[in-house]
Write a structure and sequence with these properties.
single chain; alpha+beta; Endonuclease, Chain A; about 15% strand; elongated; transmembrane helix; DUF2726
Length: about 180
């Protein structure tokens, strides 16, 4: 046994250092991978029951009947996929402007059917739009869409909608373009 210890003695500091490094790495690596977004982690997901809420589905049906075949309806569209910050901003200003719109969505977007160019955004305003943070969000969205030249129709959420009334509102807005 003493011969083995005599042989290992010169290597003992190196072996202890290697063991210490392995212990530190085993403690730090999981923390680092979590900070980087958990690469390698596998999460479980579930399918939503429907893409639209009952109120949104009701409105969508009326909206379909109110529009001509010259228009196409899309929904839950990310605002940053419809508008972008103006050219001429510095890199940091552009990023700040982009970040303001990147995680926000429009309830419905009406596009021309022939080229899919956006012509009208529609937001359904339910009771959640009465909160202070939501009011600020809505004002920012209103301002961003207006600055890009995309009209926005805000519709109060209701149990039922009149196709004729909706058709008239949309026609009035689109005739001004």
């Amino acid at each position: 046994m003493s011969k083995i210890l005599d042989l290992l003695a010169p290597w003992l500091p190196i072996l202890l250092a290697a063991a210490a490094i392995l212990m530190v790495l085993s403690a730090v690596l999981p923390w680092i991978t979590r900070k980087r977004g958990g690469r390698g982690e596998s999460f479980k997901y579930r399918l939503h029951d429907a893409l639209l809420t009952a109120a949104e589905r009701s409105f969508f049906g009326v909206l379909q009947s109110a529009l001509s075949p010259a228009h196409l309806i899309t929904f839950k569209v990310r605002i940053a996929d419809v508008i972008t910050p103006q050219k001429g901003l510095s890199g940091s200003q552009w990023q700040k402007a982009f970040n303001r719109i990147s995680a926000k969505h429009i309830d419905f977007l009406i596009c021309r059917a022939d080229d899919l160019s956006p012509v009208l955004a529609i937001e359904l305003d339910d009771a959640s739009h009465q909160g202070e943070k939501r009011i600020q969000r809505d004002q920012m969205v209103d301002s961003a869409l207006a600055s890009a030249g995309l009209p926005l129709l805000r519709m109060p959420a209701r149990k039922a909608y009149s196709p004729a009334e909706l058709r008239q509102k949309i026609a009035s807005i689109l005739s001004q373009r």
